[in-house]
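On clarity, I found the account of how folds are encoded harder to follow than it need be. What matters is that the chain and its backbone geometry are given together, residue for residue. The format is easy to grasp once an entry is in front of the reader. For illustration, here is how one protein appears when written out as sequence plus structure tokens.
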Amino acid sequence: MQLITTIAALLLRLIEVLLFLRAILSWFPLRADSPVIQFVTVTTEPLLMPVRMLLYRVFPGLRRFPFDISFIIVFILIQLLISLL
């Protein structure tokens, strides 16, 4: 059981790193066809999109907000999951 918990925590930390990398890379004008950008986007978007759509449904005014709040929500959820492990 300890091994499963450790692997789950490690995977959650890896997702955190990828989300952080995506946030940092979004500040720079990089080509979208870069393999690194594509990998980071493809691996993080399935986590961000449902949260983003839920936020837009609950708070329609967030569509005009210049920052993507879904990153913060997903980070908080990952931290919560890690603390529960």
